[in-house]
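Example 9 (inverse folding). The structure is encoded as follows.
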């Protein structure tokens, strides 16, 4: 598949940001994040139930609603600044990048095969340097079949995945014409977790040791499959954890993949070795501090699951134990 950029423009907030909100201070957690762009791609097949809507009309609607959404999420339309006092966001309303690209293929060709990492990068392009560039980049990719893939990139210095979810849901609500009922974001985390030092954290580029290639795989789980996994985990855990055990969707899928990796490693090594699984964890509703659910910025931690089972043991770990 070939991806061709059609145009790129800056979308600014529909209402100027007040002067007293011009400087948004980052938190001590924000300052620790690498200044790279993280993101997600949303895929939509052509909506056969809404015929007669051409792509230019859809793009205009998305652009207009994005502008209204940025009025609420005004720091995202600013620029990252580093100076002698540290780092902050200048909420100058310069805007976010809004890009339209055409893809010469069908969206199902992309969804029903192993991920092409080079192609995914073209579907969600972003700047190499954070300073002076837009903090958010949105790329709308249109396919020959009418399908759309929306790539969203945001710098990790200002947002975690929870913040991105709030932003995307608010934009989607505004795009449906309901801007008055969008969630109003909260940007007060910096008052709770101010930066303790003025020095800017200069992260070195990551090192790749050796020439070993990494394997990228995609696993698709239907809603029914996840429901069956949750039921299986509950049944397995009745004796040890009681009937109140209610694993989340993330927990059961992570446990299934972890158990598969343990089996693969055992087959390759001939014995069982310790394993650790790490993932990010939203702290907003998990701490004693009263952090609003709509608080934006970085407020997460890393959690780990470990298995230090002795190598001599051949007992197969149960699903609910992972």
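The amino acid assigned to each position is listed next.
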């Amino acid at each position: 598949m070939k991806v061709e950029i059609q145009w790129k423009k800056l979308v600014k907030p529909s209402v100027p940001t007040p002067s007293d909100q011009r400087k948004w201070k980052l938190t001590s957690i924000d300052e620790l994040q690498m200044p790279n762009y993280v993101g997600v791609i949303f895929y939509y097949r052509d909506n056969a139930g809404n015929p007669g809507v051409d792509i230019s009309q859809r793009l205009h609607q998305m652009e207009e609603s994005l502008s209204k959404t940025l009025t609420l999420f005004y720091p995202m339309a600013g620029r990252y600044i580093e100076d002698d006092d540290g780092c902050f966001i200048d909420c100058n309303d310069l805007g976010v990048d809004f890009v339209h690209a055409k893809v010469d293929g069908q969206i199902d060709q992309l969804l029903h095969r192993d991920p092409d990492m080079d192609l995914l990068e073209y579907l969600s392009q972003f700047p190499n340097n954070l300073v002076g560039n837009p903090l958010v980049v949105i790329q709308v990719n249109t396919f020959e079949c009418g399908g759309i893939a929306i790539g969203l990139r945001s710098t990790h210095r200002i947002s975690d995945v929870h913040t991105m979810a709030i932003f995307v849901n608010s934009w989607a609500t505004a795009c449906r014409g309901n801007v008055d009922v969008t969630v109003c974001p909260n940007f007060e985390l910096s008052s709770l977790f101010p930066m303790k030092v003025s020095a800017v954290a200069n992260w070195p580029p990551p090192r790749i040791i050796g020439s070993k290639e990494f394997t990228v795989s995609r696993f698709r789980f239907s809603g029914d499959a996840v429901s069956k996994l949750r039921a299986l985990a509950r049944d397995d855990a009745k004796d040890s954890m009681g009937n109140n055990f209610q694993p989340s969707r993330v927990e059961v899928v992570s446990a299934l993949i972890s158990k598969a990796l343990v089996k693969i490693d055992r087959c390759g090594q001939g014995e069982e070795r310790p394993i650790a699984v790490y993932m990010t964890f939203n702290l907003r509703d998990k701490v004693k501090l009263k952090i609003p659910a709509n608080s934006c910025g970085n407020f997460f931690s890393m959690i780990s699951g470990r298995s230090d089972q002795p190598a001599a043991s051949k007992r197969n770990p149960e699903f609910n134990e992972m």
